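dumping the sequnces here before i forget
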Amino acid sequence: MQNYLEFEKPLAEIEGKAEELRAMARSSDSMDVADEAAALDAKASKMLDTLYKSLTPWQKCQVARHPDRPHCRDYIAALFDEYTPLAGDRNFADDHSVMGGLARFDGTPVMVIGHEKGSDTKSRIERNFGMARPEGYRKAIRLMELASRFGLPVVTLVDTPGAYPGKGAEERGQSEAIARATEKCLQVGVPLISIIIGEGGSGGAVAFATGNRVAMLEHSIYSVISPEGCASILWKDAEKMREAAEALRLTAQDLKQLGVVDRIIAEPRGGAQRDRDAVLNSVRSALTAMLKELSSKSPKKLIDERRKKFLKMGSKGLAA
Amino acid sequence: MNWISNYVRPTINSLFSRREMPENLWTKCPECGTMLFHRELADNLMVCPSCDHHMAFRPRERFAALFDGGIFVEVKVPEPVADPLAFKDQKKYPDRMKAAQKNTGEAEAMLVAEGEIGRTPIVAAAQDFSFMGGSMGMYVGNAIIAAAERAVELKRPLIIFSAAGGARMQEGILSLMQMPRTTVAVQMLKEAGLPYIVVLTHPTTGGVTASYAMLGDVHISEPNALICFAGPRVIEQTIREKLPEGFQRAEYLLDHGMLDRVTHRRDLRDELISITRMLCGMGPPVKGDLPAPVGTTEGDDTKDAAAKPDGDDAG
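..and the predicted 3d for all of it:
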C-alpha cells in the first residue's frame, strides 16, 4: 500500500483508477481493460516524472520526511556486513535514537553512526522519532574516538528533525553534548563521510555531519531550523512553512551551490520511498567513491582539509 | 527605594522630557520596577542597584568597563558576503540589517577587541543581543575566528561574552555552518595552549550554546542568565508540562554541572583577571581601577611579553 503525499493526490487518483479497473477485470472474464489501464499507467508515470522534476522546497521537505523512505536501519542492513552495534555513552544511558557500531563496508571495517527515526508507532517511540538526547551525541563521540584510535573510517547517516527539546536533555547538557560532538568530528584522524538521507535538522545534524565529505540524497533537506519553526518566528504564522522552506534554501541542490555539500546522490523516479533497492545502490556507489577519494590521506591531512573546508565555507554565497 | 525615588524621579523625568531632553534617561528595572537614572545604572554596570537584576550590557560599554582605563583596540573582522541567500520573509534581510544598524549604531552583532585587564593582555569578543538578537551568522563566525587568530598571534587568552537567541535564520544553512567554524576557532586556541574563557550572559541559546559557548576552559555566567539549547517555550510545547521556576537559568546550570561559576557583574572583572593570570602562570594581579596603559598600540610587543609565562607582568 503506497502512502501518498498531499501533493501527490492527482497521481493517487489515477493510480487508484487503474488499480480499480484491474480489480474489476479480475472479477469478470469478459472485460478487457488492459489498454485502458495501460493508458492510465502511462499518464501516472508521466505525472510522477513531472512532479518530481520540479518539487518545490516544501514538497522536498515532505518527501524527505516520507515514512516509507529507507531509514538508517535499512541502510545499515543493506550496505554493511557484520554490523555489531555498540551501545551507551558510559555516563548515563544508551540513546536508541542513535544507532552505531562496527561494520564492514565492502570488506573494509568502518564505524557507522546514524539517527534512526523508526518505522511504526512502537519503533518511533522507542527511537524518539530520531531526536537524540545528550547520551546519543556522547555515544557518537565515544564511537568516533574509538574509530579514530584504530584507524577506521567513520560513516554517518543523518536523518533527524533535530535534537530533542526535553527537560532531561537540557539538564544533562544538550548544548554541550552537541558542541563536543561537532568538535570530535573535527578532531578525528580518519575519513569522516556524512550522508544526509532524509532530514538534516539543525544542530542535531551538524553534530554528525561535520565531515570531510558531506553528501545529500537528491530529495533530502538540511536546514538551520524547520520551515514550520522559521515560519512561526519570522512570519508569526506556522502555516507559512511553504514560504519559509523557499527562503531557507534547504534543498540539496541549493546547498551544493552554496558549497555546503559536496555531492548529491540521485534518487529513483518518484523518490527513495518508491524504489528502495535503487536508492540503496546509489548510496552504496557514492560511499565507495567517497571512501576511495579519502583512503590514502594521512590523519593530519584529513584533519587539515576538514578544517579548511569549514573555515572557507560561505565565502561565496549563492550567485542569485 | 523610598517614596521619593519612586515618585519624584518619574515626575522629574516628565518635566525634562517636556524640555525635549532625550527620552531614555530613565530605565525601568524589568525585574523590580524601580525607575533608574541612566548614569546611576551605567555606573553600576547596568545592574539594578535595588534588586541586582543584570540588564543587557552592550559590548562597547562592557569593554569600556572591562579594559584598563576603558582603552581597547578593535580587532578588524573580515566582512562576509551580504545577504548570501537573498533572504526575504515579511521583510528583506538587508532591510532588517539596516534597521538593526540604525537602532544599535553598530555594524553587526559582535565586537572584538584587544587590550589589557589588570595589566593582563587579552583579546575579548562580546556579542550584542540588541543587534538582531545577537544572532550568529557569517559575521559572528568571522568575528570569533578573527578573535582566535589574533589571540594566537599575540599569545593571549581569549574571553568571549556570549549573548544570542541562536543562529541567524536569514543566513539559512550558512548560519548553521558557524557551529563547526567557531569550533575550529576554539581548537586553534587550545592547540596554541591559550586559555579560552566564556562568560555566558543573558540569554545564550540555540546554536551558540551548542558550539563555542560550551567549549570554554572555564565557563562563568552572570546571575539568572537564561542558558539553553531549546528555549523553555519549545520544551513546554513538546512535553506539555510547565517547567519549574529557574529552569535553564545560570544557577540551575551551575547545579547541573554545566558552569564553573555564577558571578555578579561587579566581581567579574577581578575574577577574569585572576583566572587568566593563573592560567598563564603570571604573578598576582594589581587590584582596582587602573589607568590606561602607557603607549597602548596595536601589536605593541613589550605588552605582549606579559602574556608569556616568564614575562615581566608587574605592569
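The first helix of chain B runs from residue 3 to 18.
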